[in-house]
Amino acid sequence: MHEMSIAMAVVDQVEEAARAGGAASVESVRLQVGELAGVVPDALSFCFGLACAGTVLEGAELVVEPVAARARCEPCADEWAVGMPPRLCCPACGEPTAELLSGRELQIVSVHWQDGPEHEHTRETISQER
Hints:
The chain is of the alpha+beta class. It contains two helices and seven strands; from the N terminus they run H-E-H-E-E-E-E-E-E. The chain has helices at residues 2-20, 41-52; strands at 23-34, 61-67, 70-72, 79-81, 99-102, 106-115, 128-129. The strands form two sheets. Strands 2-1-6-7 form a four-stranded mixed beta sheet. Helix 2 (41-52) links the parallel strand 1 (23-34) and strand 2 (61-67). The longest helix has 19 residues, at 2-20. It starts with a helix and ends with a strand.
């Protein structure tokens, strides 16, 4: 299950940023996960909880934002929802496309944490692509 390796990578990145920022605990992590990223959100959430154990993220909420897959046809400029299984031929003109506009995302969008006693404000990290 590759969701565990993804969860561990997210925890490692967030933990490094949180410790550098003086966080006492991480409250939530928000991820964008594209429809074509090959990630099962429920499995990722389960693995995230396991990967957080014993870290500054223990008890943190994982918020997964799904990103729909969209494609664009170069010849006719039509855009459409790709869906699953992916439909990569233009529904308007029938041409195959290689231009995916979205759907492959797997990135940390934001992190919310409580600062330790030596810090007074909440910090946020944004858009670390994986």
